[in-house]
Please model this.
Amino acid sequence: MASLFAEKARYFNPTLALSVTLIAVSTFNYGFDNQAFATTQSMDPFTRRFGVYDEKTKDWILEPYWLSLFNSLNYIGFAAGVFAGSLVSSRWGRKWCMFGMSCYALITATISVTSQTREQIMAARVLNYIYVGMELSVVPTFQSEIVPAPVRGLVVGSYQFSLVLGGLVINSICYRTSSLPDDRAWRIPIGLFYLVPSIVLSLIWFVPESPRWLLRQDRIEEARSNLQRLRSGAFSDDEIEAEFHDLCTALEKEEEQGTFVELFQGINLKRSFIVAGVNFFQQTTGQAFVSQYGAVYVRSLKLMNPSLFSMCGSAVSLVTISLSLLVTDRFGRRTLLMVSSIMMAAVLLSFGGLGIEQPVPVPRKRGLVGLMLVFAIAGGSGWLPLTYVVATEVSALRLRDHSARFGFGVNVLFNFLVSFSVPYLISDQYAALNSKVGFIFGSIAMLAFVFVWLCVPECKGKTLEQIDTLFQRGTRMRDFSKGVGERYDEDEKTIDVSVKA
Model:
């Protein structure tokens, strides 16, 4: 383990380390929002404030239709945020996008924490997800553009790591506040939404702007200076100059940024298919059920404190994702994604099998809770962190902002559809599948394995420019691991494309 840390650390100088850390910290708020609402909606004070009294059960409840809307309408804001964030990021830069979305997040935090009615809390979540969508559109792209190729998988994958870490922090707080008898139980966790945006908007100006974005704006000397700041001390001057020339060469071949329509033309159609595919399978293989409805489902089983379950799930995910990120640049994206697919399919099909016998006996209920925690290992080992890595790697350089908008739009669309559908699928009032919903998600996880095997190239250790070259040459997906792409020759001013023996 120590050798893995040492191997990764040598690529970072203080500026790059602080930059990727601050960018990753921004993702904490996604984890805060995601898990704060997922966990607080299982609290009695939250249910009394925003639910209705059920005469049949003599208890306060959140109706399935309201849960469906509460956990799905927010993706309307998410979609708007992805679109707006990619436009702002492309036009005014990655830093201005992060500053603007952090200022906006302070407004939505105020609306959330002061909620008195179910309409206000619903609107607050939708509006806050505009910020989350902007974050998704800029953070993975920004990270992929400023880090060296050997650690790109680690850094870009930290998006999911930060999300889960934020979820662990907020779930730990929810566990402590869940015993409070009044609205403080849910207002305290939601009040923490102020913390991360305040930190980011104060410090983002100390982070160098993306050299790749600056080159596309014809700000060449500023791009050279920023690359020097991000590499000095970890790389030699010759290595920094060679990387800068690679960036310039790629830009000269691009000439200008492409249009959205080009995503579906020529070789770009294959790349867009991969981007859409990884985002589709991340959202349709059960993670929304566990992350959004896990606490509510555990509450219905009446076996343990739902906040404790959420905290345990976040802790398991955090450890698994950490290990996955450390080894992804060694074992590759394809291997981890295929292993993750097999594990998820096994867990989900077992989850469905335990619910066949009705009513479900207590030992099987314990098994269901255990499998939901094992699912955190299965997803965290591949699909949760590496979707963002693959999506940002295979995008064409001249279409990166359009590709991000398209790919994450697919992510949001299916996140919405799954989140909207799950309450109706598991509720006894509707489809009454309960845990048998695992058969649906497990089958999709099996298809995810086939998709990775046939369609996802191995891009570990390659610069974004080298990946671009391999696609342009029509390299077969299975041969990407052999290609090393372009190298700019300073003396001969030529491009050499070679393949490992």
User: Anything to note?
Assistant: Confidence is low (pLDDT under 50) at residues 485-501. The chain is about 70% helix and 5% strand.
